[in-house]
From TrEMBL, chain A:
This is ABC transporter substrate-binding protein. Residues 28-392 form the Leucine-binding protein domain. Keywords: Signal. PANTHER family: BLR6548 PROTEIN. Residues 1-22 form the signal peptide. It comes from the Bacteria. It comes from Massilia litorea. Belongs to the leucine-binding protein family. The keyword Repeat does not apply. The keyword Signal applies. Pfam families: Peripla_BP_6.
From TrEMBL, chain B:
One of its GO terms (cellular component) is plasma membrane. This is Branched-chain amino acid ABC transporter permease. It comes from Massilia litorea. It is found in: Cell membrane. It is a multi-pass membrane protein. InterPro entries: ABC_transp_permease, LivM-like. Its main location: membrane. Keywords: Cell membrane, Membrane, Transmembrane, Transmembrane helix. It holds the Pfam family BPD_transp_2. The chain crosses the membrane at residues 27-44, 50-69, 76-96, 102-123, 130-151, 182-200, 230-252, 264-297, 309-329. GO terms for molecular function: branched-chain amino acid transmembrane transporter activity.
Amino acid sequence: MKLMKSIVFAAALMGAGGQVLAADQFVALPSYRVGPYGAGGSGFYGGMIDYFNLVNANGGINGVKMTWEECETEYNASRGVECYERMKTKNGGATLVDPLSTGIAYGIVDRVATDKIPMTMLGYGRSDAANGKVFPYVFPLITSYWNQAAAMIKYLADKNGGYPKLKGKKIVYLYHDSAFGKEAMPVLDAQAAQYGFELIKIAVAPPGSEQQSQWLQIRQAKPDHVILWGWGVMNSVAIKTAQRNGFPREKILGVWWAGSEEDTIPSGEAAKGYTSMTFNTPGNYPLIDEIRKKVYAAGKGNLADQGRIGSVYHMRGVTLGVLWVEAIRTAQEKFGKGKTMTGEQVRWGLENLNVDAARQKALGAFGMFPTVKTSCEDHEGSGAVKVQQWDGKKWVAITPNWVVGDKALTRKLLEESSLAYAKEKNITPACMQ
Amino acid sequence: MLYREAGQFKTSYVADGQILPIRQDRVALCALLAVALAAVPLLASPYLLSAILIPFLIFALAALGLNMLTGYAGQLSLGTAAFMAVGAYASFNFVARIPGMPLLLAFILGGLCAALVGIAFGLPSLRIRGFYLAAATLATQFFVIWCLTKIPYLTNYSSSGVVTVQTMQIFGYRFVSPQAKYLLVLGIVSLMALLAKNMIRSNVGRSWMAIRDMDMAAEVIGFRPLRTKLLAFAVSSFYCGVAGALYAFAYLGTVEPEAYSLDLSFRILFMVIIGGVGSILGSFLGAAFIVLLPIFLNMLAHALGLATNYASNLELMVFGGLIIFFLIVEPHGLARLWQIGKEKLRLWPFPH
């Protein structure tokens, strides 16, 4: 009971001490920097914080400073829910959240609607949440797993000379045997039926550190392509095992969570030629230089290793930081410049986001991510991705333009799935004003 | 002075057989329950209720389940999280597939499904024991999770294998607010803890302890080992199953196989070891230690203004250090510390 008391006491203490000025925009960062996925989490949340620091150094959003709090989730759903509950009422209430974890996102997906805190899921989570009529507070921004899977098939078709050429081809789907790994299956199954390629699904038990039998199976099947839907340690093991089995890495196409420096550098030479999806164009941008100059030079940088600035995860974090700030800016244009926005107002901002080429240029991030234009029907705003290749030292984009797959198909699937969810939860699909 | 049983005479067998023989204990427990039932829902913040007290109670129930099996019946198990998963998925399916299914009945049926799985995986306990049995129960962990990811029927054909659970509803009342959820969980956990306490005191509990202490001798004096061990597995799994269902319905709001990983099994085993093997109170103390301490350390680090990456690592170090410290100081767990404290109080101020 003593422990309880001290916790109650500490909570009360922190509640009292956490008052901030009115002109602050508070956001919650349920991050993970320790545990099995810490490498990805530290880069991603580091990028977001770097961008917030840059915005604050430049005077904030029309004078409103970003404030945030981190809470370690260890990528664990239970801890994540606790973190969300802890942060949501702090400093007058959190106005944005992104747990970067499917498990945590599923755990809080119902809560964010009740608490009126918009949640973004940048490149993960429920693909059907793109339907804003059913999920008003959830935003799978830029692109979802389903659009990624469709874009993968589009890319492979282009590589072979068009969709009809896919007929009779063999594609292995090597996946992390979890919710994340299974998310893409409806799209891949539908496309396999449509274009007549053979889809061989091979599961890898998490965490995926042993894949000898799977690659033996792949070698026997002699596939034309392997889609690697992996996460964490599974990726580098897959690349190394492919090399050991003499399978060309050029034929492996990774999901975007299998396409970072953290996946390829541990694989060494074996990773050379390996391709993966991404929703950032690798390279350097004026915005990243500005972060170097204004944030890191001032000693406010979040990454301990400055060599990671501009890496895949870091850039992904910066991208989400840009989208959040743009959403708040958009909301301010409607509800009053220089004011702190509430969660509901930020939600409106996210739903009316328009980060076009001109805006990207103004931010110094032209081409860093696809243009994002959201609406009530489309909380994703883009669905475009690129394919990148590891040249042994760095990632290089090998599709000059953004790739978009069969969006009519993914739209149909997401309508079906989200309406089933609405029925289950007694939600009447409607746009919020 | 205050904690003394002098003058408390027992004049009937009923009085002699009560759960808490000392009047002060009874008063303290009633006061605690009154605070938990009335004061806490009124005064505690939604955060305290929904993110701290609810998981604490649920894990205490799971630890209680494991404690009956490991602490009282002496059968080491590493499959706790799997039994929880069975309870959660079974309850979800009962509610989803049978129209008008009462929620509490779904929890009970979920627990019964877990009990059946527990019996099936408890069968090897007749021939093997100790670490070997632990390895056999480990199979439950892998088998159940494998089933859940492989059989789409169990996840209601959800494409990702993750399902959001239904709103808790009993007699038309929807348990949505943190207060309502907390009271529901508290009610179920208190009732089941009382049931467990009585089971332990009865013939069933004695048969378990006899098997634990020396199964050969237990058999000689007439306890049937197979029945006793399987009963322990069934009851323990039932408790874990209900805890799993509560974890999904009252806490996470979602069911996914990864939430019931081997890691969770270990954590519940640690709760039992740190709280006190073979003690009802120990299950609660252990759950409090394992669930609340990391959160508390994390908050403390925040209050001290430490950078997050240092804070998280520091949290792990302090937590690990404290576990080692406690186990060295008191290998029988927190419950034993409490017991020693009570004995000292009864002798105070004249220790001998």
